[in-house]
Records
---
Amino acid sequence: MSNMDNQKIKQVKTKIMTELLNLNTTEAKCVLSHVSQAIQQIAPGKELYNKVKAGFIIKGTTLGAWCRRSGVKQQNVMSCLIGTWDGPKAKMLRAKVIQESGIVGGNDENS
């Protein structure tokens, strides 16, 4: 991930956390939709894969454990994160695993 991606992530997280405190449910869903769009813009690569793994470790688990709980092959997750698998299903899985890892979207306690 480039510095621009990291800056984008931080800006989105700050905006979301600030806005969600003052929103009703409908408005919150709209903001969360923007998070999904931001996640879709994150470029795949080895750095993203490493950050996702680190995100799970910070949460006290592992990427492998998440894959087993979710019924997803770890090789597929790795492929979608580094970009060797990049079709529509891969993009959906990438967004889900990024969100679940806590590296974007406000799921981590350290943001």
Note: Residues 106-111 have pLDDT under 50 and may be disordered.
---
Amino acid sequence: MKEEITESEAPTVSLGKKLANLRLEQGLTQRNIASKIHVKTSIIEDIELDKTVNAPAVFLRGYIKHYATIVGLPVTEYQEYLDQLSNQQSSNTMKNYSNKEQNKRNGKRLLFISIFILVIIVGVTAFFTWQDNKSELIEVTHYISKTPSTNS
């Protein structure tokens, strides 16, 4: 009696394993699937190993749907996984929004600091140029004679 395994107690096989097993049963290679879906073989490998694929969730959903239809996996088998991807995508969107706001604030702060430094540099340069020109002025009073010259 204890040896009977009910469906709820059975170890769950991951979606990647299911897809890989069905692919092998049909005698297809990862390269065959990749060429039918028009993706790199590494993406198919990552899907089968349940690794995170470096692609937007929208594309990943399409890859999995197309892969499942090629190997004949019913929709009910992978729909829950696609729903989880949708939930992850919506939570990532909120994180990105706050990051954009933070980046915008940092950008404004950086712009203000850059303009402030530029104004200081221009001011210091103008001051020293004015001081340099002021010291180069020649007093010409000693060249003028104090006695009027007589022109006859």
Note: The two ends are 145 Å apart (CA to CA).
